[in-house]
Design goal:
Low-confidence stretches: none
Oligomer: single chain
Mean pLDDT: 88
Helix content: 25-40%
Strand content: 15-25%
Length: 308
């Protein structure tokens, strides 16, 4: 069975037309139609029929569609494991994080590495205690996951963007805007904003202060020595609202998170590494993770979802 044709069949069945599927797959509808007919001939079965102006699966098509996801997932995982195993065996990765959760796609990719090489050592360290460029260039860490407001990269480093910016503000549940799903930064005029700790790597604090200064609103700030792990807990006890560059995986009690749609300076989730790292795992990680992000983003698009 041609797995490329199987993937195309899935997209056609989900979209209900050759033209819609061709737009997603970035190929001509005539080419896609010819491939579908050849795929049906190879299986000696009619998979799709036109009903009411849309393409609908036949009985054979429904059977194949119900099993296609598992077939494709197994193939991708196997191909990735074989390709990675034939090139490089991971030994150790030291990864700095500036937030209390793993960035999107990083967890599943590390899981793939760990399943292939169970002996690999993965160290996750607190990036707020480590200056970004210095800790990568001197080898304190191999990789640094953070959020940066522009595409500038310190000299000697490589940057890989993980996902699009997706910012939010954390509010007390009784806040006047708490029933909304998103807000404009201008609607937060007059609020007190809780600041992230002033740390060795102040990327989140810089994100907050830069956007507040450029937003054209009146605001106050609440600055304390609260640890980054507990900063969000200041929201439900009334110290202010918390502007953050990425969604909170775990909301504190009596609080809500709303997306902010118009910040002047967005911050993009990214991972950085040293171009001249002495650890051979680093270049392999960056290449493999870039491919994994493309694969996962494409899969999300096929499902109709949008990666955050």
């Amino acid at each position: 069975m041609n797995l490329d044709r199987l993937q195309e069949f899935v997209v056609i069945a989900e979209r209900g037309s050759l033209s819609a599927a061709a737009d997603v797959l970035k190929i001509a509808p005539s080419t896609l139609g010819a491939r579908l007919r050849a795929f049906e001939e190879s299986l000696d079965a009619k998979l799709l029929v036109s009903e009411g102006g849309a393409l609908e699966p036949t009985e054979a098509g429904r059977i194949l569609l119900s099993r296609a996801g598992g077939i494709l997932a197994t193939y991708r995982a196997t191909a990735a494991a074989v390709a990675t195993a034939s090139h490089h065996a991971f030994r150790r990765l030291r990864i700095a994080l500036v937030e209390t959760s793993l960035p999107i796609y990083l967890g599943p990719f590390l899981d793939r590495i760990n399943r292939t090489w169970p002996e690999v050592r993965i160290d996750l360290v607190n990036g707020s205690r480590l200056p970004l460029a210095e800790s990568l260039l001197n080898g304190t860490v191999d990789l640094y996951c953070t959020l940066l407001m522009d595409d500038a990269v310190p000299e000697g480093l490589t940057r890989l963007n993980i996902a699009r910016p997706f910012h939010h503000v954390l509010l007390p549940r009784e806040h006047r805007l708490a029933q909304r799903t998103n807000v404009s930064i201008r609607e937060l005029d007059g609020e007190c904003f809780i600041l992230a700790p002033n740390s060795e790597e102040p990327c989140i604090r810089n994100f907050q202060l830069t956007n507040l200064a450029a937003a054209g609103i009146r605001y106050r700030t609440y600055d304390s020595e609260t640890d980054a792990v507990y900063t969000a807990l200041l929201v439900p006890i009334g110290k202010g609202v918390l502007l953050m560059p990425s969604p909170s995986p775990n909301l504190p009690p009596n609080s809500v998170a709303l997306s902010v749609r118009d910040l002047p300076y967005p911050a993009t989730p990214c991972v950085l590494s040293c171009r001249q790292s002495a650890n051979p795992d680093v270049s392999e990680f960056m290449a493999g993770f870039a491919a994994f992000i493309r694969e996962a983003s494409h899969r999300d698009a096929m499902k109709g979802g949008v990666a955050p």
